[in-house]
Amino acid sequence: MDKTIVDILQQAGLLIAELWLLILAVAVLLLDVFSKRKRGYLTNALAIAGIIINFYFIYTTSQKYPIADQATFYFFDSLAVYRYTYLFQFLFNTSALLCLCLGMFGRDNKNVRRGEYLALIIFMLLGLHLLAKPANFLILYLAIELISFSAYMLTYFNLNKWGTEGSLKYLLFGAFSTACMLYGISLLYAFTGSIDLEALQQIVMQTDQVASLLIVGLILVGLVFKLAAFPFQGWAPDTYEVAPTPFVAFLSVAPKIGAVFIITLIWQQLDAINTSSQFLYYLLSFITLGSILFGNLGALWQKKAKRLLAYSSIAHTGFLLLPLFNNSTNSMEPLLFYAFIFMIMNTAAFAWVYFMEVRLKSDKIDALSGCGKVQPFVSVLLLVIMISLTGLPITAGFTAKLFVFSELWQSISTTNTLASIVFIAGLINVLIALYYYLKFPYTAFFKNPPVTTLPFVLNVRQASFILVMTIPLIVFFFKPDWLLVLIESLS
Amino acid sequence: MLLTILLIFFASLLSPFFYKRYQLATASLLSLLLLGIIFFYATHLPQITKGESFVSSFSWIDSLGIHLTFYLDGLSLFFVMLITVMGLLVLLYSFKYMEDYPNRGVFFCYLLFFMGAMLGLVLSANLISLFVFWELTSFSSFLLIGFKNQKAESRRAARQALLVTAGGGLALMSGFILLEIITNSGFDLLATLNNAEAVRESNLHTAAIILIAIGAISKSAQFPLHFWLPNAMAAPTPVSAYLHSATMVKAGVYLIFRLNPLFEDIALWSYVLGITGAITMSWGAFKALQQDDIKRILAYTTISALGIFFMMTGVGGEKAINAVMVYVLAHAFYKGGLFLLAGNIEHQTGSRKLSELSDLVRKMPYSATAVIFACASMAGVIPFIGFVGKESLYEALYHSGHQLEFVYLAMLFLAGAFFTAATIKIVYGAFLEKGKLEGKAIKEAGILMVFSPLILGIAGLFTGILPQFTVEPLLKWSAAAVYQTEFSTEFSTEFSTDLPNALSIEPSMKLKLWHGFNMVLLLSLLTLLSGVGLYFIRKLIEKLNKPYWLTADFIYDQFINGTSNFSKAITNVIQNGYLRNYIAVFMVTFSGMMIFVFIDGGFIVSADVGNLLESAQIYELVIIALVTLATAFLFKTKSRLIVTATFGIIGYSIALAYTLFSAPDVAITQFLAETLSLILLILILHRLPPYTLKKNIAHKKYLPLAVLFGVIMSFTTFTLLNREVNADLKTFFLENSLSEGKGKNAVNVILTDFRALDTLGEITVLTVTMIGIIALLKIKSKP
Q1: Which chain B positions have a beta carbon within 8 Å of A112's beta carbon?
Q2: Which residue of A has its CA nearest to B604?
Q3: Range B516-555 burial, b when 16+ CB lie within 10 A, else e
Q4: Measuring CA to CA, which residue among B126, B157, B133 is closest to residue B144?
Q5: If 0-12 CB within 10 Å is exposed, 13-18 middle and 19+ buried, where does residue B351 land?
């Protein structure tokens, strides 16, 4: 047999998790077609079970293709296993699992097109899995496209005209950013004749600043768009507001973390050369500061919970990028810790919003009035989630912020003046965040509902979902090392 | 020590569940628990008063080297005693006072939670955990102030207090981080304190001092962040007594005491504290006399007293610290008692406005006794502890040799006089005066509600008479920790449980009730006399008011509204829902980025535009003109059809340009793509709703932006033209397309042969998308 084919067959095991997801998506579609009752529970259960099994496949792959400090390349240098590849796959998988579990609480009419909905989420997860191991920009681009196209369609799954608008905006904006990214990639190709991630090093060495920064800048556009960071945040609030909430819990976490992962990869490539220009740091501060400030200011006056969370997730993006300021260490632990906690608390917050939507058909924060009196315990959970999102003790949100800030102050002590500005701005923003996140518990505890309406309550199933999501937020405050050990064991 | 804190938190969590059913049992259990804790800490007294200290440490965040460490020395123990004893008294009081509130179980939960947090704060020997407890006290204060949440006033006050104190906490945290950068001690308090040298030499200490001072100022309600405290009086009275006078507001004071050894040699520290304290002290005392509501009077005098603590810490030195420590104790005794008594008055009469009260000495004799005791102490009448405190303050200031000594002394004198006047106002107005309430049936408050304030009043008298035996041993060690550098240069940082660390030299503090006739006594007497004088001109003072727009409350409101409006405006500009606006934001960013790159790389100068113009051919200029005209025309038209047609012109022109530059295969591809998209666009056009944009003005604001972006892009492309391009691939495709791919059109060959797999992938993605879209189209859209 041809040697090439032998090689491919030998390395096919690397893609076993991805192949499994592909099979799963098809199976879900088929089951949906052939199951007579349109209840959707069966399809949902299949999807959830499949994703749980996928953890096992990630595990076996990680055993067979172990990680090393340096990336190892497969499939003729088109795929690579990086140090954090499996960890990120684990994160994406968990996020998808949470999204699907949350979807189980939905209304019945949501079961229209349940099969397609689930399949698209699994496709998106497949894209994310690929995003964790690209070795060249083509694979990266394909992964991003797979994620994006699934996301464009999933946005519409509330099946109303606002959904069309949000979805279309998302699509057009996405097309624009992707075009920029492609332009950057093609310029890279033109100058170096290569589309490997490592070609970035080459371009910085071979050409002058204008060309290299233009290329890096253009490629970043596509990623920053996926991140929903300033100045490409535009689509996020409009899209989140109209998309199905469980999907938003996934959309606002997984692609974001994936994009951060790619940006760190690019960062490492560029750092290896250590460009004399401070330009990239200016760009990074612009993006982080812009995201944090704009996200928080935008969230400050929102009356609708979902839109508020959409803006605030833009601010969290800024915090996720903070560890990049410290180029002296290549440790990604602070980022990963933040990513984990962000996933948990953001999903919890969106879950809360979803339950409001399911019951009240509205996500106005005012609808929480009186909740604290009727259900004090559940409302305390809400308080914990919101304090965690703000980043104050005694929640893991605080520990996460402490970790990312610690990266910053270490770079302050190694003479990076920009970092100190970002640092101070970040702290001020915690106060702004406190103001708006507090609206939730403030309304729940202190305001009384109008006499005519009953206060909003969660049923036992919903409350236990929230409880399960809240426990880690407290546990990882007291024992952050447990989470760090988990991160360590996967990387 | 950790155990005691955990026990309190535990009790706090359980109390709301049990209090509903077993009121009496829960109440007595809670009291017993607190008694036990007081006893536990009291057993440390003998060793502490010998100068020993205790450290206990637990692992927490190992990866950052952060440990959960607790440290007990004179200063911590003094505050622990304050917190637990006052806590017990307030708790006893509120068992009775809160009787009428339906969900008082939750109240006790919050109150105990606060107590645990406060204990943690004063025991923490780690800056992170100190911050954690600091913020927890802010949160519990938020919940407690808003406890009577039916009132909008309470809700507003709760939120205000939280924003100010939690915000100050963040400043504090940044200060701590700066300290960590300077000393690199893993946020360990004791190790940091041992590094005073490094802090003094670092150039970061100015920022650290200012940030930490902001934290302390916000928590301890110092000018200009004092405004939240009077508003916080919306809380139930026990809360005001406990949090907003005896303990929480003293957290800031504790903090500056604790960090004083680190900064005391730095002039900035002493001026920041001294001047803020002095201003707050006088301002608070002055405002106190203007108030009618008893609780507000007390709130302002509290602010003023906290100002005294700050000022004296700013003055610094052994005497000043000794004096301030006595005054902290005196203040806790009289102010806590007075707040509780204000609660009694409100509880029994339904009002706490002086203008509506009278005759209470006859209706509520026991409360009246306690009030008179506490007020005497506050005014500084002999032989109460307040007198001892005031004497030592005068004494310390008089001999301090500080530059601002006389300014401080004069202001302190004035504040003292105002205190006296306010005291007379309360005692005479509410208790002695006859009239308004004479005929009404008002009963004495319940026994639990009289017990606590009476105990505090008697304690004030007792300690006042015999200060040297009762409180001096602890206070002098407490004070010694604040100016510790003179006694011991090392704080023990051993991470073992309860390791005693003996100090060799005894600190000195000579407390006496009677010092003989001297200047200081004269000052005290004059203070009392001027106070009486001020009382008689109080009507005049009440008229002295700032205009409303200068009050801190107004500025706070403006600030909150302003931020909110500002954020609204920003969001409306950047995020107005129009896609074109988002694209505009992108273009601005990109242009800015490129301009920066060009300036940074020095390319503005080196670009050779002249050369480009010279080599231009006439037919190139025709194409350029065509494209430019078409683009300009886009701005003129309102018809979609014309827009589409114009786009076509631009597209074909570009294809034409390709032919001119000898790339016919690319050109033909461009022609085909252009034609296809034109046809598709026109097909879609008639299905779209009518064009809604009435005016062209909406477009015009983007015109300069578009021009800028165009210029930048042209310039970028132009500079890129000068770069050396890797030509291997180009030649490879051109040379091999016929021989390997059997095709003359290189573009086609690339698509269908060389990169056929990519094309297949692309087709697959498009197919998947199409299937998805068809599926969505089949669902009937609901409006």
Answers
A1: 779
A2: A210
A3: eeeebbebbeebbebbeebbeebeebeeeeeeeeeebeee
A4: B157
A5: middle
Where do the domains of chain A lie? 3-489
Quick check: A261 contacting B, CB < 8 Å? Answer: no
Cα separation, B326 vs A247, in Å, equals 62
Per the CB < 8 Å rule, is B593 touching A173? no
Spatial separation of the C-alpha atoms in residues B706 and B587, rounded to whole Å: 8
Which DSSP state fits B431?
A: I
Q: Which of B146, B594, B782 sits opposite A446 (nearest CB)?
A: B146
Could you say which of A116, A149, A423 has the minimum Cβ distance to residue B775? A116
Contacts of B579 in chain A (CB under 8 A): 169, 172-173, 234
Distance CA B765, CA B486 (A): 77
Q: In chain B, how many H helices and how many E strands?
A: 37, 2
Q: Which of B110, B172, B776, B777 to mutate to test the interface with A (most CBs of A within 10 A)?
A: B776
Q: Quick one: DSSP state of residue A395?
A: S
Work out whether strand B54-61 and strand B66-72 pair parallel, antiparallel, or are unpaired.
antiparallel
Q: H or E stretch including B71?
A: strand B66-72
Which helix or strand (DSSP H or E) is residue B619 part of? helix B618-634
Contact list, B166 vs chain A (CB under 8 Å): 392, 431, 434
User: B271 vs A120, B213, B223, B259, B315, CA distance in Å?
Assistant: 65, 11, 14, 15, 8
Residue B338 pLDDT level (bands cut at 50, 70, 90): confident
pLDDT given for residue B496 in this prediction: 35
Within 8 A of A326 by CB-CB distance, chain B residues are none
Please give the residue of chain B at the shortest CA–CA distance from A297.
B567
pLDDT digits (tens, 9 = 90+) for B475-524: 777 777 777 554 444 454 443 333 334 444 455 666 666 666 677 777 77
Q: Which residues of A touch B773 (CB under 8 A)?
A: 153
Contacts of B600 in chain A (CB under 8 A): 209, 277, 279
Q: Which of A176, A193, A446 sits opposite B583 (nearest CB)?
A: A176
pLDDT > 70: what percent of chain A?
92
Minimal Cα distance from A123: which residue of B? B768
What's the CA gap between B302 and B555, in Å, rounded? 22
What per-residue confidence (pLDDT) applies to B489? 41
Query: Cβ contact (<8 Å) for A445 and B149?
Result: yes
Quick one: how far is CA A322 from the chain centroid?
A: 15
pTM of this prediction?
0.84
What is the per-residue DSSP string for B363-428? H-HHHHHHHHHHHHHHHT-TTSHHHHHHHHHHHHHHT---TTHHHHHHHHHHHHHHHHHHHHHHII
Give the largest Cα separation in chain A, rounded: 79
B459 within 8 A of B333, measured Cβ to Cβ: yes
Q: Is the pLDDT of residue A7 over 80?
A: no
Nearest to A193 among B574, B601, B729 (CB): B729
C-alpha distances in angstroms, A174 versus A261, A484, B480, B673? 19, 35, 65, 21
Q: How far apart are CA B550 and CA B546, in angstroms?
A: 6
Mean pLDDT across B236-250: 81
Query: Which of chain B's residues have a Cβ under 8 Å away from the Cβ of A160?
Result: 781-783
Two structure tokens written together for A220: 């970043």
Top pLDDT among B305 and B357 is at: B305
Using the beta-carbon criterion (under 8 Å), do B575 and A402 form an inter-chain contact? no
- Please give the distance of CA A198 from its chain centroid, rounded to a whole number: 25
Residue B579's Cβ-count burial label (10 Å; 0-12, 13-18, 19+) is: middle
Strand stretches in B505-652, DSSP E: none
What integer pLDDT is reported at residue A125 of this predicted model?
92
Whether the predicted pLDDT of A344 surpasses 90: yes
The rounded Cα B606 to chain-centroid distance in angstroms is 51
- Mean pLDDT for chain B? 77
